[in-house]
Every structure is written in C-alpha cells, then in structure tokens.
Design goal:
InterPro entries: WH_DNA-bd_sf. By secondary structure, the chain is mainly alpha-helical. The chain has six helices and three strands. The chain has two domains: about 50 residues, no CATH class; about 70 residues, Orthogonal Bundle (Arc Repressor Mutant, subunit A), CATH 1.10.10.
Amino acid sequence: MTTLTRSRVDVLLLNDAQQVLATHRPGPTGRCDQLHCHGQLWPCIPAATARRAAALARGRQPAAPATRWAITRPGHQTPPTAQMPARLADVLDTLYWFPSATVTAIARRCRTSTAALRHTLAELRHHGLVQAVTT
C-alpha cells in the first residue's frame, strides 16, 4: 500500500482542476461552452469549483464563493404582463434567460450600476421573486 504525500495529492488535485478549467471556457456570449452546463454564465459551477480546488492545491485559501441570483417558483409564475416597474421586469427577464447570474453579469446585461441593481434585487427578494444562491 502506497502512502501519498501532501505534495502528491496537491499535484493530482491541481491537474484535475486544470483539466476542468481547460474544458469549461467562456464562449463569445460570456456563457460556458460545455453542453452539459446548458449555457450558464461563466464561470459555471464546475469552473468555479475547479478554481477553488486549484487554490487549495496551491496551498492558498480560496476566494469566497460567488453569490448568484436565481428566480424562485413564484418568480417563474409571474405573468409577463404583470404590472411592475421596468427595472424589476428587466432583472426578472434577465434571470429567466440566464438562470443563475452574478450581480455583475446582471448589471451588465441590464445596463445599470451594481449599486442600483443591489437595491432592485433586494426589492425582488422581499417579494419572494428571486433568491441568492451561493456556489
């Protein structure tokens, strides 16, 4: 039976993380080009996990996980003709097409500042239409 040293385990983990990152690349639209990611905004969940694994393999503390936003079931059931301010409708529409997105990605898509978007997300969250998901 062979005992693996810490450096050997780190090399294996780093190699696996690099392989995942090599296959999960952002496409021209800023979404992951892997079919099984179903067009998630990049970094997709496998890429974000691989980044954390690579940081651990190098002996570094990984960055805090990114908070992504997603529509809740009541948000999906909101009819497109519902009366609401345009800024709220724009964010819901963006999250409908990009099921899990960061604040920066949503702000870029809605052409607004991240500060203004945080207020909008807080309002949508208060009404139970969106939720924060930590990856």
